[in-house]
Amino acid sequence: MADSTSFGMVNPAIFEHLQAKIDEDAQVREELKNILQTLEKQGARFTPYFQWITDSLKAEQPSLSYQELIRYPRPDVLQSTVEDAERSLSEQVETIGKLATVASRYPYYKYNGMWTRDIQTACLAIVFCGWLGGFAVEGGDGKPGRLLTIEEVGQILNVPVNLKDQDAFHLTIEEYLQSLISLIEELARLAVNAVTLGDYHRPLQISQFVKDLHAGFQILNLKNDSLRRRSDSIKYNVKKIEDVVYDLSLRNLIQRGTAPT
Question: Contact 116/129 with Cβ under 8 angstroms?
Fold first, then answer.
């Protein structure tokens, strides 16, 4: 009679050990998921600010040239909306801080797929507010029409950027670039909406900014397939904005020569 303690050809302890690892992984994912659910809800609460910012773009100074538009202070209603948006983003920053604390206990690239989309959404909100003149970080001028660098975004989120020498939570270059592509999409919509509100000069500002961003992306040798495919769509948004500016010019709603060179 065979010994009751004997095993077959495969020791069951191997699978008991694997099950323990699976359970441990499930617990980590559940802990991260709870934080990410909060972050996702906060991101959804921020979404209306994109429309509210558009609604605040009243043409209070329709006679200004592009150069004058850049120099003049923002309309009070726009400034107030941007400041409200910044305060709303502070909730996401706090939650991302909790996420960073938990995520940094584990291998970064094992779990980063769980949060990368939410981080891109937060980055988009930050660079959009920055383009409107918000988030004037130390040493920054806070002027509208500027692009926040990845370092500035990391500073606002209070997380490290593009870590190479340690396995911890950080903002990746890919996440930043994805947010810039989303920014271009939002600005393309903003150019159209600005015209309906009688702000005929803002599309000029948007057009030049987006062209400059497009030129920057063309310099990059992108290895990420998703990022490369999305970057190909930039040219369509450039064309969309150019069409808005061209239509304004045909209708004599902007002076010829006022568009940035």
Answer: no
